[in-house]
Structures are given as C-alpha cells and as structure tokens.
Amino acid sequence: MNDFSGIKALTFDLFGTVLDLSGSLTPSISRFLEAKGVDLPADEFWQQWRYRQRIEQHQDTIMMLGHSGYLETVRRAFVYTLALFDIPITDEEVYHFLLVWQDLDPFPDVRPALPRLATRYRLIALSNGDQVFLNHLATNRIQYNFDEVMSVAQFGSFKPHPAVYRGAARQLCLDVNECMMISANAFDIVGARACGFRAGYVDRTGLPYDDSPYRPDVTVKDFAELANVLLGE
Predict the structure, then answer these.
(1) What CATH number is given for 21-103 in this structure?
(2) H-only helix segments in the chain
(3) Rounded distance, CA 149 to CA 93, Å?
C-alpha cells in the first residue's frame, strides 16, 4: 500500500488529463475537413496533429532557441498536418480555426473530484500552456479555482524538462517529494518521477507505459478513482 501522507500538493497536467482534447476538437476537425471536401477521418487528422505538436515541443526545448509557447506549437503542428494531407489553407483560415482551442472542455469526472482532493491537498495546474490561455481555461472552461495556475513559460521549457518540476516545487516552497504530478501523459510521469516527484498516472487511453524505471506511484482510470485512492476512500 502506497503512503501518501507526505504529499502536500498535487500538480495537474491539463491537456489530455483534465481537458478532453480529442472530444473537444474532433467535432470541429470533422466539420473543417467536410467543408474542405477532404475524405479523411477526424480522428486520424487529430492523431497526426497531436503527435506532431509533441515533436514541436520537444524540438523547442532541445534546441534551446527560446520558448515559443504552447499555442505556437499547436499552430506549427496544424500547418504541418495540413501539408501532410495536402490540404490547402490560408493563414487567415488557420487563425480562425485555431480559436476552437479556447473552447476545450474538461472530462466529466474532473469537476466533482477536484473539491474532494482539495480537502487534503493544494491543487496546482502545472501545464505546458501559455499563462493567459491557462487562466482562461481554468476560470471559464474547467471552472475551478486552483491554488495556483503555473505555465512552463516561467521556467523556459516544455515538460518533461527537469526545470519545470524542480521550479514548480521551489515556487511552492516544497521539497520535490512533497509534490505529486497527476498526468495522463506517460512522458510527464517519467519526467516528474525522475526529478523526485511522486506521480499519479491517469490511464485514460490504455496506451502502453514507457519502458522506463520511473514508474507511477499509482495508476487510475479517472479522477473519481484518483480521489478515492489519494483520500483512502
């Protein structure tokens, strides 16, 4: 049985963990492809887009040419995916379509669980997103008042760079082992654990976990189960 008594703060990934990216975006992608006369499943487009965005983020961090920001990696990945499928589009169309990212919805299990977890832990949003964008999402889409909303921009790198996790712990005035990263992205769990964080893996998609010695302390299917485990209920 895991002992969670030393944990003081839960740091939450947002994109894909708290916010349902696929469920929020694929309906708009489907309408976009239909309007363009493109016979392509929205899920296939989204998978390529999401995969490419992660490459853009990793390249951004590895090359250390300056942190370009989350929404810029979204845009670059979108343009790449359009070219991959040979879909013509203007810069103006790109701008207007990407506004759909302002309307992301949380998974239905998130909102009921957060107040339960807040009875024992400080709840921190720790996300690759841009600060203004994260503030909007927390207030208007997730509709929850986190103790803090932290953007990786203040640390100059995307997760899973060690500066993010160590910087977040320092800003919270906590030791790394007093923080627990909650994420549905395995790379985020690996990165956090490698820095000394505890970690809760929300296995929403059933994908294989990374072949890594840095394992999550607990694996759950959703936030309801996460709250039950961390609160001992």
Answers:
(1) 1.10.150
(2) 21-35, 42-63, 70-84, 91-97, 110-117, 131-136, 162-171, 186-194, 223-230
(3) 31
Please tell me the predicted confidence (pLDDT) of residue 110: 98
Q: Which amino acid is at 127?
A: S
Assigned CATH topology for domain 9-20+104-230: Rossmann fold (3.40.50)
| pLDDT the model gives residue 148 | 98
Q: CB neighbours of 118 closer than 8 A, spacing ≥ 6?
A: none
Spatial contact of 46 and 212, defined as CB atoms under 8 Å apart:
no
Q: Give residues with Cβ within 8 angstroms of 15, minimum separation 6.
A: 21, 104, 127, 128, 129
Is-above-0.90 flag for pTM? yes
pLDDT in tens, 27-39: 999 999 999 999 9
Flag residues of the chain having pLDDT under 70: 1
Using one digit for the tens of pLDDT, what is the confidence trace for 85-110? 999 999 999 999 999 999 999 999 99
Scan for tokens 């007093």, then name that residue.
178
User: What is the spatial distance between Cα 178 and Cα 90, in angstroms, rounded to a whole number?
Assistant: 48
β-bridge mates for residue 198, sequence order: 180
Q: How far apart are CA 175 and CA 83, in angstroms?
A: 45
Sign of the dihedral through C-alpha 190, 143, 30, 69: negative
Which residue shows structure tokens 């103790």?
A: 147
Domain residue spans of the chain: 9-20+104-230, 21-103
What does the DSSP 8-state code read for residue 78? Answer: H
Closest CA to 181 of 138, 226, 116: 226
